[in-house]
Amino acid sequence: MTSVIHTRAELAAAVAAVPGEVAVVMTMGALHEGHRTLMRTARARAPFVLVTIFVNPLQFGPNEDFEKYPRTLDADVAACAAEGVAVVFAPSRDEMYPGGAPQITMDAGPVGGILEGASRPGHFAGMLTVVQKLLMLTRADVAYFGEKDYQQLALIRRLVRDLELAVDIVGVPTVREPDGLAMSSRNRYLSPADRSAALALSRALRLGAASTDAESALATATKILAEEPAVRVDYLALTAPDLGPPPASGPARLLVAARVGGTRLIDNVPLTLAPSDRLPDPRPRQRA
Ligand SMILES: Nc1ncnc2c1ncn2[C@@H]1O[C@H](COP(=O)(O)OP(=O)(O)OP(=O)(O)O)[C@@H](O)[C@H]1O
Ligand SMILES: CC(C)(CO)[C@@H](O)C(=O)[O-]
Ligand code: BAL
């Protein structure tokens, strides 16, 4: 039986009663199979899984989709129940931010200012602030985040490391639709034509990542994205796994963000670069 609670007092009581580990999955709701995979992964480790559902105003820019973000609590609770989640914490804005916006917030540091951070100023500071609050309020021993939001996951790992937080962060690979589209709550904004155009993102990453050479990985992905006029690329970047400059060889990450119609989508994949004869260029590689 999944209990649904809305206040921090109820949350404190619920977690105080847990004899073992508290495993947390943080979400903004409009749950899909990606979220459910996080819950299932959490359930495999801990019997007590807590899902938070909160559309955090702090991480949305003034012209972003905070107001229209899908809010589907009943269906979300049903999905959590089907995954054996013990508690859903769905606070109001006042419950999370009593007294209004916080005066003390997180600084997302240099990695918070590139890629998504460059396009969404303040987004990662707002995200890290609510994640830090939710880690404290839930007393999480372990928290699960998706690789779909790769830079978010990297920053949360950095938060935990830099501030000595006593929580395990587990990353979960991106769950995709059968045709390759990364699952995302924002996919429901896409018209059928936009959805079809949006497949260029995963196709570009997949075919780009098939190359073991940095230049051709970027060139292949760039070409595929350029073939789809409805896709307006924000960035296409090849980085190290920690989002630093790409290595001369070994594990790397290919990331993309683009607008399709009025919807901004992101995606990323791992790839492995083979050693090349050329000297590596130490600058991050990015094409817009
Ligand atoms: N396709 C996916 N595969 C794995 N994890 C995912 C996927 N989509 C979202 N998640 C993870 O679920 C958690 C909650 O994400 P969120 O509620 O923002 O969903 P979302 O689908 O990413 O929404 P949005 O479309 O608003 O970006 C995050 O850790 C996120 O990375
Ligand atoms: C981690 C998170 C729940 C914080 O609001 C959000 O950024 C998300 O859903 O990925
Ligand atoms: N899915 C990451 C949260 C956001 O886009 O605001």
Automatic annotation (TrEMBL):
Binding residue positions for ATP: 28-35, 146-149, 175, 183-186
Recorded metabolic or biological pathway in which this protein acts: Cofactor biosynthesis; (R)-pantothenate biosynthesis; (R)-pantothenate from (R)-pantoate and beta-alanine: step 1/1
Gene3D superfamilies referenced in this protein's UniProt entry, alphabetically: HUPs (3.40.50.620), Pantoate-beta-alanine ligase, C-terminal domain (3.30.1300.10)
InterPro entries xref list: Pantoate_ligase, Pantoate_ligase_C, Rossmann-like_a/b/a_fold
Annotated compartments: Cytoplasm
Known catalytic reactions: (R)-pantoate + beta-alanine + ATP = (R)-pantothenate + AMP + diphosphate + H(+)
Other known facts: The reaction proceeds by a bi uni uni bi ping pong mechanism.
Organism taxonomic ancestry: Bacteria, Bacillati, Actinomycetota, Actinomycetes, Micromonosporales
Keywords, sorted A to Z: ATP-binding, Cytoplasm, Ligase, Nucleotide-binding, Pantothenate biosynthesis
Binding site for beta-alanine: 59
Catalytic residues identified in the record: 35 (proton donor)
Subunit-level organization: Homodimer.
Molecular function terms, GO-annotated: ATP binding; pantoate-beta-alanine ligase activity
Annotated positions binding (R)-pantoate: 59, 152
Protein name: Pantothenate synthetase
EC number: 6.3.2.1
Biological process annotations from GO: pantothenate biosynthetic process
Source organism: Paractinoplanes ferrugineus
Family indicated by similarity: Belongs to the pantothenate synthetase family.
Record's function text: Catalyzes the condensation of pantoate with beta-alanine in an ATP-dependent reaction via a pantoyl-adenylate intermediate.
GO cellular component annotations of the record: cytosol
